[in-house]
Amino acid sequence: MRITHLTAASLLSSLGHASPLSQMSRFLEIETRQSPGSYFAITGATGGVYPRLEIRELEKTGEMWNLYLLAMISFQGTNQDDIASYYQIAGIHGMPWVPWDGVAGSINDDKNTNQLGYCPHANLLFGTWHRPYLALFEQQLQKHATNIANQFASPAKSTYQAAAIKLRIPFWDWAKALPTSEPVLPTAVTSEKISVTFPNGTKASVDNPLFDYNFHPLDHSQINGTGCPVTGTQNGPVGGLPEVCDNDLMTVRNGVNASDHPGLDKKLRNILPSQRTGVYAILSQWQHFDSFSNQGNCGPGGGAGTLEAVHNPIHTQMWPGHMSPASVAAFDPIFWMHHANVDRQMALYQVVFPETYVEQCPADTPTYSINRGDLLDANSPLTPFHKNAKGDWWTSANSRNTRDMGYTYPELASNPSNSTLVKQIKTLYGPATGFAAKYKRQNHLPSRSTKQTRYLAKVEFPVYGLNAGAPYNVLMFLGNVSSDSKTWLGSEAFVGLASSLGGVNMRSEMVATATVDLNDKIEKKIGSKELTVEGTVEYLRANLRWRMELGENEIPKKEVEGIKVVLISTEVEVAEKDDVFDRWVGGFVEHGEVDI
Ligand SMILES: *[C@@H]1O[C@H](CO)[C@@H](O)[C@H](O)[C@H]1NC(C)=O
Ligand SMILES: *[C@@H]1O[C@H](CO)[C@@H](O)[C@H](O)[C@H]1NC(C)=O
Ligand SMILES: *[C@@H]1O[C@H](CO)[C@@H](O)[C@H](O)[C@H]1NC(C)=O
Ligand SMILES: *[C@@H]1O[C@H](CO)[C@@H](O)[C@H](O)[C@H]1NC(C)=O
Ligand SMILES: *[C@@H]1O[C@H](CO)[C@@H](O)[C@H](O)[C@H]1NC(C)=O
């Protein structure tokens, strides 16, 4: 329901103090309890514009990598009462349900009663909100790094000081092609111990700060199982997520009391091809930014997938573990590398399609400081992030260019021309060998043919449809599906997935859309003569299947009301050159609901 009509100007004038509530409309009202001049100023890293590196590249940098590890150890060790501590910054995202930097909740939603964090999901601001959030983390990390660099003795000191100036948070590219011998989860985050050199020159093997975060302490009155969605279904429990939030020692991944990294790596390997295809689709197809950036019902609905939908499965694969409920996700150090990668995807998109950006949409899903229905736009404050002590806000408009926050990404560092960047994106995420050429060969098509049809499964899923907001995955298969859900992700028939992150107490009817691309599988089957181009629709209708699961445990379809999968197709104008993207043209054709 749209209940708000508010201009950016009236919104801006309402900031920083309580404004009278308009009789006819609710609007985004931000109350702050800080006195002016004492806000926490988020500047991002300082000292110039430097690229955030892929974690496996940062690892090769010697001094900078050592400094990063020492800075993470120091940052994580900060007293949890400090507003700039790792604990409090991670706590902005979800639990504890307390204000940060004096930014109070909205009029009708109280962070404690309603148990909402500041993070916007299924909401216009999903993409841009995480930008100042990461910049805040990066700025604090650099502060710790600078202090540590100053402790080294000459001549190492100047090398470390120079490294601190250039240090930016790493990103983890979970969609890039990797030989099967290499883990998708970087070993730097899965080793329990890691080598560092202290400023006094002593080398040691220490607890790896990228492996987990150790609460010191976990206050159960602040963070506890009540902040995690109940995951039991009518047919019995799926697992123990509330126990994860109650884990008072450390963050875990893919496990309750300890991380299961080998198991997680297998899952990430299994979803890598579809994640890669999903990333390529959102980076190569023009959509209105509001349709591209989030899975809320904003923008005209592009249909090529969304940044948020592509990011979701990385969270849900770590279930049960801190990364899967949004209420505690940011405590896991891998959260920051994952979201830096999501921010990078957004930055790449912004350079390829610079003319489209955040416009306007009522909030589909509330946060601690945003009511459902509040009208959001590019000037909406990205609460609780202040630009300066005076209290000016970070907004989507003023965070549009990453360089203003002191960072860029490797692909963008040298201001590439559009065709250079397109080529690079195609190399990173595009079909392995010239798709057009391969398609033509396989289909014995004349080389001048530039049209083909692309098939996708469109998944419409109620985001908070399972047990008051528990996460779930919708897996697509082409072929027969075993009754043993433990084998699904690794099976030959598995194509890809759509994931709902859910969220505790969201109470929203919100239905999101994600697409699973079927073409790689179809091509293989055409290649092996199992399928002909003409018989594709008929084959898909007979063999496309979907199942629901979480943590490899089946969730009966009837547990989520309103979930729907539809087979769709679009025409593709195949690019003849490697610095141009294939274009999906002419909209989508529906071929009926998939209900097996
Ligand atoms: C060097 O610093 C580390 C970390 O502070 C400390 O544990 C170690 O004892 C120091 N070594 C020497 C030789 O002082
Ligand atoms: C759990 O935390 C919430 C606040 O985040 C608090 O209201 C509630 O009382 C806590 N529960 C327990 C059992 O401490
Ligand atoms: C986790 O640890 C708690 C406390 O030791 C124990 O009660 C629980 O059974 C463990 N859960 C699992 C899944 O191992
Ligand atoms: C699925 O199983 C049926 C019955 O066992 C079989 O006839 C059919 O060929 C299988 N389909 C595929 C795509 O493997
Ligand atoms: C960059 O190239 C892509 C693919 O050909 C095109 O769709 C896009 O509009 C171009 N962007 C700019 C800024 O020229």
What is the element layout, followed by pairings?
Elements: H1 8-13, E1 50-51, H2 55-58, H3 63-77, H4 86-90, H5 111-114, H6 126-149, H7 156-166, H8 187-190, E2 193-197, E3 203-207, E4 232-233, E5 236-237, H9 241-246, H10 261-284, H11 289-293, H12 307-316, H13 334-352, E6 360-362, E7 375-377, E8 381-386, E9 393-395, E10 407-408, H14 418-429, H15 435-442, E11 451-462, E12 472-478, E13 494-500, E14 511-517, H16 519-527, H17 536-543, E15 544-550, E16 553-554, E17 564-573, E18 583-593
Parallel strand pairs: 1-10
Antiparallel strand pairs: 2-3, 4-5, 6-7, 8-9, 11-14, 11-17, 12-13, 12-15, 15-16, 17-18
Helix pairs in contact: 3-6, 6-7, 6-13, 10-12, 10-13, 10-14, 12-13
The chain binds 2-acetamido-2-deoxy-beta-D-glucopyranose (5 copies).
Organism: Clohesyomyces aquaticus
EC number: 1.14.18.1
Family: Belongs to the tyrosinase family.
Main sheet properties: 4 strands, antiparallel
Average pLDDT, rounded to a whole number, is: 88
- What is the topology, as strand order, of the major beta sheet? 14-11-17-18
Radius of gyration: 24 Å
CATH topology of the domain at 435-594: Hemocyanin, Chain: A, domain 2
CATH class of the domain at 435-594: Mainly Beta
Structural class: alpha+beta
User: What is the number of beta strands?
Assistant: 18
Helix content: 25-40%
- Given as residue ranges, the uncertain stretches (5+ residues, pLDDT < 50) are 1-27
What percent strand?
Answer: 15-25%
Morphology:
globular
The N- to C-terminal Cα distance equals: 33 Å
Q: Give every kind of bound small molecule, once each.
A: 2-acetamido-2-deoxy-beta-D-glucopyranose
Number of helices: 17
The CATH architecture term of the domain at 435-594 is: Sandwich
Family: Belongs to the tyrosinase family.
Cofactor: Cu(2+)
Keywords: Copper, Melanin biosynthesis, Metal-binding, Monooxygenase, Oxidoreductase, Signal
GO molecular function: metal ion binding; tyrosinase activity
